[in-house]
From TrEMBL:
It comes from the Eukaryota. WD repeats lie at residues 120-153, 173-216, 267-308. One of its GO terms (biological process) is DNA-templated DNA replication. The gene is LOC105166269. One of its GO terms (cellular component) is nuclear pre-replicative complex. It comes from Sesamum indicum (Oriental sesame). The keyword Repeat applies. The keyword Cell cycle does not apply. This is Protein ROOT INITIATION DEFECTIVE 3. Keywords: Repeat, WD repeat.
Length: 452
């Protein structure tokens, strides 16, 4: 059985809790976190990131994004975006982070360098939730204006096509009448389904291939959280009445349930509203967080509670289930973990940029993403940037001309040269491909013109 951990946070400054999902053993607690809903994410299991929104006396709010390594309870990296960020999500490889702003803008950063790659206006009101689809070609957003929008990252990063398009989104769904509280996506890439929840007491199932709603489920209570069963037979909906409703995705229109059409049952144990849900990788365990400060683990086959965690006295608004990171061990002290991390040379990436096109931007490509890391390799080995190489070269040159330093300098210079050469090769390949396409189009037009 794959070892998984439960991670939970709160909107109050209660930090982040972490437990072993299957044994219940508590891991290190991480300090100084007051996250909004959907504002906590694990960046490919390498480190934790969370958005923070704090209200000031002047009635305006300020925001930041914080990083924690697994080996230290204190915040290690602080970023200050251009506006407060609510939802925060990372892709599975940990190369990008996307954040939704209170203005309705979406921000897209490169993790290794902190560079703000793109920013676009996505919604008329604050973005409330973000999720990547399974092949990570699409980003789905929900907002306080009641809309759910689907964004193709290929279009977002294609500047030429962006200028030709009337709008950037692939789909814009407006059937919700109140704030969207959660969005989940199934498997199948651009043919997957999307399930959205709202304060209008409905969950709606959308088809990406058809671009329309295929099922509308009305609940007895407002729904704040949803979790989609891996087999996509049912989905779970956490209500403000403390119940977790089970809705069938393939159930008939008629239903004998007391709760309504398509609702096949409910789990009821929380004393207050269910604010967040997450499932284990196999789907046999469902984890629910509540405003009562409790986290419950349910067996989805028997619908019984098998474990209970207490996060804080305050509410729980984020819960994640992820594969256990390498540097988590309940029997190892924080000092030992930190020492092990230092020996491996693990460092967190730099803060995220506030604005795009910073004055100190290098003419070189800022990052090269290497091959996937193996379990016994250092966690941050993919983060190799040309700027880092240059800095290491300068540092080694200052330290003297020992044989070891000279070898390292030459190695780094060689790596830098190969990186620049690779960039030039990519540019040449693109130019050749572009020329080929233009030639084909011109020849095609000349061939068709006599018959025109």
């Amino acid at each position: 059985m794959e070892t998984e951990v439960v991670i939970a946070s709160s909107p109050t400054d209660a930090g982040i809790s972490c437990w072993d999902l299957h044994t219940g053993a508590e891991h290190l607690r991480y300090k100084s976190c007051a996250s909004p809903s959907h504002g906590l994410t694990s960046v490919a299991g390498r480190f934790l990131a969370s958005s923070q929104i704090r209200e000031s006396k002047s009635s305006s709010s300020s925001g930041s994004i914080l990083y924690w390594s697994w080996s230290k309870p204190q915040v290690e990296v602080r970023s200050f975006p251009a506006e407060p960020i609510k939802p925060l999500v990372s892709n599975s490889q940990g190369t990008y982070i996307a954040g939704g702003g209170v203005s309705g803008d979406i921000y897209f950063w490169e993790v290794a360098t902190g560079k703000l790659l793109k920013k676009w206006h996505a919604h008329y009101r604050a973005v409330s939730c973000l999720v990547f689809n399974d092949d990570e070609s699409l980003l789905i957003s929900g907002a306080e204006d009641g809309s759910v929008r689907v964004w193709s990252l290929f279009l977002i990063f294609d500047d030429a096509r962006r200028e030709e398009m009337k709008h950037l989104f692939e789909y814009s769904f407006h059937e919700h009448s109140l704030r969207v509280t959660d969005v989940k996506t199934g498997y199948g890439g651009s043919n997957a389904i999307i399930v959205s929840a709202s304060e209008d007491r409905t969950c709606k199932v959308w088809s990406l291939s058809k671009g329309k709603i295929v099922r509308n489920v009305v609940f007895p209570s407002m729904i704040d959280a949803i979790s989609l069963d891996p087999g996509e037979h049912v989905f779970y909906a956490g209500g403000r009445d403390g119940k977790i409703y089970i809705a069938g995705l393939n159930s008939p229109v008629t239903s004998n349930s007391n709760y309504g059409l398509h609702i096949v049952g409910a789990l009821s144990e929380h004393s207050k509203g269910v604010s967040c849900l997450a499932s284990s990788a196999d789907g046999f365990l469902l984890v629910s967080g509540s405003e009562d400060g409790m986290i419950r683990v349910w067996d989805t086959r028997t619908r019984n509670i098998i474990r209970v965690f207490r996060h804080t006295k305050g509410p729980v608004n984020n819960v994640l289930v992820i594969r256990q990171p390498k540097y988590i061990n309940p029997r190892t002290s924080a000092t030992s973990l930190a020492s092990a991390a230092r020996r491996q040379g693990l460092t967190l990436p730099p803060p995220l940029e506030k604005f795009a096109n910073s004055p100190d931007e290098s003419p070189y490509v800022k990052v090269l993403i290497g091959p996937q890391t193996l379990p016994n390799q250092p966690l941050f080995s993919p983060y190799i940037s040309i700027q880092t190489m240059e800095a290491q070269i300068k540092e080694l040159q200052k330290q003297g001309s020992s044989a070891a330093a000279e070898v390292d300098v030459e190695r780094l210079k060689s790596e830098q040269l190969r990186s620049v050469q690779m960039i030039q090769q990519w540019k040449k390949m693109y130019e050749n491909l572009h020329q080929f396409c233009v030639s084909e189009l011109l020849e095609g037009s000349h061939t068709e013109s006599p018959n025109g």
